[in-house]
Design a protein that fits this description.
Length: 360
C-alpha cells in the first residue's frame, strides 16, 4: 500500500512559495509527479495556488493540459522536429535550447501570424541542454525579431545541493549576465536546492521539484512535510539456525539463531536490490511492531526478508504490516541505504501498489 498525502504536497508548495516571494513559485510535476501520480498531485497543487508547471516530455504536457486547462505548462525537453503544431494547439510552452528549435518555433509563429510563448534555455555550465553562452549573447541582439517574445529565460544549477560548490556561484554570475541582455523577460534558475541559496538565485521564478514531495534537496537541511507512506504485508514468519544463509546468492550468513519475516515487496516494486544486506553491509530498514528491523540478504523481485529476532516472540504474525517509508523513515533514508538518491526512490515506486490518496 502506498499512501500519498496531497495536503502535505500542497503545504510544501505553500512553504516554498512563501520563502521565495516575491518570486513566482512553479511546480515540477514531471515523471508522473515524481512517481506519485500527476492526475491527483497536479490538481492539488493548482488548488494550493500553483499556476506555472514544468514537465519533461510532450506526452506529459498533453496529459497535464487535460487536467489543468488554465495552467501555464512548460516542457523541459524542448522541441523535437515536426511537433511544433502539437505544442501550439495544446497551449504548451516548449523550453527551447538550440538554434534549430528556436527557428522551428519562430517559423510556426510566423505561419500562424501570432506570437506564441516559449522559454529559452541557456547552458551555464551543466552541458546537458541549452544554448551556449555565445549563442545566447548572439540571440540577445535579435530576439525581438524572432516572431515571438520569450516568456522565460532559464538555466539549471548542476551543484545547488552541494553548499559552497564553486560551479554554483559561477553559474549564477553567467546567468545574471545573460538575463540582463533580455530586458523585460522573466528569468528562472533555482530548483529546490536553489531556493535555499538566497534571493540572488531566485530571479522571477523558482522551480521546486523534490521539495514538494518530501525529499531532501541539500544535505543536512531537513525536508518539508513527509508525503509518502509505503507499507507491505508479512506473508511468512520463519526461523533459521545460525550459520544458514538468506536469499539469492547466499550473501548473508546468519550469526545467530534468527527469526525472519518475509514481506511481499521487491525490486519490481521499487525496493532496490542494492538496499539488501550482506555479511559486509547492513541494508535498508522497515518498521515492524514499532521497531526498526534490517533487511536480511538480497532483495528479490517480489520479496524481501526482515530480521525480527530482537522483537518479542509473538510480536509479528502473517498479515502484519511492515512500514518501509513513514514513521520516521524518509525517502532519503531509504535512498542512503540503497546507494542512490531520494529522487530515484520516488520515481521507482512500482505500479503494483494500491495507491491511496489522503487530504488535498
Amino acid at each position: 500500500m502506498l499512501t500519498i498525502d496531497l495536503s502535505a504536497i500542497a503545504d510544501n508548495w505553500r512553504a516554498i512559495a512563501a520563502l521565495s516571494a516575491p518570486s513566482d513559485c512553479a511546480a515540477v510535476v514531471k515523471a508522473n509527479a515524481y512517481g506519485l501520480g500527476m492526475a491527483r498531485v497536479a490538481p492539488a497543487l493548482w488548488r494550493a495556488g500553483a499556476r506555472n508547471f514544468f514537465v519533461a516530455h510532450l506526452s506529459e504536457g498533453l496529459e497535464l493540459r487535460a487536467l489543468l486547462p488554465e495552467a501555464i505548462i512548460y516542457v523541459l525537453n524542448g522541441l523535437l522536429p515536426e511537433v511544433a503544431d502539437v505544442y501550439a494547439d495544446a497551449d504548451l510552452r516548449p523550453v527551447l535550447g538550440s538554434a534549430p528549435e528556436i527557428s522551428d518555433w519562430s517559423d510556426l509563429c510566423r505561419d500562424r501570424n501570432t506570437s506564441l510563448p516559449a522559454a529559452i534555455h541557456v547552458d551555464t555550465g551543466m552541458h546537458r541542454l541549452g544554448l551556449s553562452l555565445e549563442e545566447a549573447v548572439q540571440l540577445s541582439g535579435t530576439f525581438r525579431l524572432l516572431g515571438f517574445t520569450p516568456s522565460l529565460i532559464m538555466s539549471h544549477l548542476a551543484c545547488a545541493d552541494m553548499p559552497g560548490h564553486v560551479l554554483t556561484a559561477r553559474q549564477r554570475m553567467i546567468f545574471a549576465d545573460v538575463v540582463r541582455r533580455f530586458p523585460g523577460v522573466p528569468a528562472s534558475l533555482a530548483n529546490s536546492a536553489g531556493t535555499l541559496l538566497g534571493r540572488d538565485f531566485r530571479f522571477e521564478m523558482v522551480r521546486p521539484g523534490i521539495f514538494l514531495y518530501g525529499g531532501v534537496a541539500i544535505a543536512g537541511v531537513p525536508p518539508l512535510q513527509p508525503v509518502v507512506r509505503l507499507e507491505a504485508k508479512v506473508i511468512q514468519v520463519l526461523s533459521a539456525p545460525a550459520g544458514e544463509t538468506v536469499g539469492y546468492g547466499a550473501v548473508q550468513r546468519l550469526k545467530r539463531p534468527s527469526r525472519l519475516a518475509t514481506v511481499a515487496i521487491g525490486y519490481a516494486d521499487g525496493l532496490f536490490r542494492a538496499g539488501g544486506s550482506s555479511d559486509m553491509v547492513k541494508g535498508a530498514e522497515a518498521i515492524l511492531a514499532g521497531r526498526r528491523c534490517h533487511l536480511v540478504g538480497r532483495v528479490s523481485m517480489d520479496l524481501a526478508t526482515l530480521d525480527i529476532t530482537d522483537l518479542p516472540e509473538q510480536a509479528v504474525e502473517r498479515g502484519d504490516t511492515a512500514v518501509f517509508l513513514g514513521d520516521g523513515i524518509g525517502v532519503d533514508d531509504l535512498a542512503a541505504r540503497s546507494g542512490t538518491i531520494g529522487y530515484e526512490v520516488l520515481t521507482s515506486l512500482g505500479a503494483r501498489y494500491a495507491r491511496r490518496y489522503v487530504g488535498g
